[in-house]
Amino acid sequence: MVQEKKRTKGIFDGVAAREGYALNKLMFSLNSEQNRKEFLKNREAYCDQYALTNEQREAVLSGDRVRLVDVGANMYFGIKLVRTYRRANML
């Protein structure tokens, strides 16, 4: 029997990568200027395009960096989200 590894908060390993896939996919999409505009236009609708957990969705909408990492964000991609908010003077 194979045991499932438990995720350690703050450690970005294979478990975190699987759990944070949709979240990181959303944040990676913000590399595109058009996607950033769409995100800022309607953040909730943009989040609906990805299979986020409720915790992930709340972290994205709040822009809380620590919370993003706690719910599976790769910090490299998290910075994309934070920069998007800062450029829009939302943080």
TrEMBL record:
Show the GO MF annotations. Answer: dioxygenase activity
- Output the InterPro entries linked to this UniProt entry: LigA_sf, Xdiol_dOase_LigA
Q: Does the keyword Oxidoreductase apply?
A: yes
Q: Which residues cross the membrane?
A: none
The reply to whether Protein biosynthesis figures as a keyword in the UniProt entry is no
Which superkingdom? Bacteria
Instruction: Give the UniProt keywords, A-Z.
Output: Dioxygenase, Oxidoreductase
Chain ranges of the Extradiol ring-cleavage dioxygenase LigAB LigA subunit domain: 23-86
The name this protein carries in UniProt is Extradiol ring-cleavage dioxygenase LigAB LigA subunit
This protein's species is Hirschia baltica (strain ATCC 49814 / DSM 5838 / IFAM 1418)
- Taxon lineage: Bacteria, Pseudomonadati, Pseudomonadota, Alphaproteobacteria, Hyphomonadales
